[in-house]
Design goal:
Blueprint lengths: L5 H10 L4 E6 L13 E6 L12 E8 L28 H6 L7 E5 L13 E7 L11 E7 L5
Parallel strand pairs: 1-3, 4-6
Antiparallel strand pairs: 2-3, 5-6
């Protein structure tokens, strides 16, 4: 299904008898594919060929129509919260949040002088973080600065 629109790929998979379908952001930003027609398939977990349709999950790695496909799938696995602060610079604020225990207090502020609100976290790229990577996490709050993707930190 590589290169097809996500909606078309899902329709074709269902027509072939596959119903356990999943998709993720191949750029690793954690964006939801709510409007399938706005996404195209970069890759998939099931290689082309004949397969039994029962109990097989197909995971489509997708990018927005206007985006280039990455060299490797950046979103194939979800981060697991740990006990030390990971390096989240360059990642989306949404993915940075997934690296942290859900009880961690996190603030994300605009690194530009515009002072915008960081609302859609998957559209914002982390510039700086406090505490620094490798610091033991022991309940302290985490502060990030970020800019919208396509802007410079």
């Amino acid at each position: 299904m590589t290169g097809k629109g996500l909606e078309e790929a899902q329709d074709q998979a269902q027509a072939a008898g596959f119903y356990d379908l999943y998709s993720h952001d191949a750029l690793g930003r954690g964006r939801m594919q709510a409007l399938d027609g706005n996404w195209k398939v970069w890759g998939q977990t099931l290689v082309a060929g004949e397969h039994p349709t029962d109990a097989i999950r197909i995971d489509f790695a997708a990018v927005k129509l206007e985006e280039d496909c990455p060299g490797t799938d950046q979103g194939a696995s979800q981060p697991e919260p740990g006990t030390t602060m990971p390096d989240v610079t360059g990642k989306s604020v949404k993915i940075a949040r997934l690296f942290l225990d859900p009880s961690t207090s996190l603030t994300a502020t605009d690194a530009s002088p515009e002072g915008r609100k960081v609302l859609m976290e998957s559209n914002w790229q982390v510039c700086t973080q406090e505490p620094t990577a490798g610091t033991k996490l022991d309940g302290q709050p985490v502060a990030l600065t970020a800019v919208k993707y396509g802007e410079d930190c």
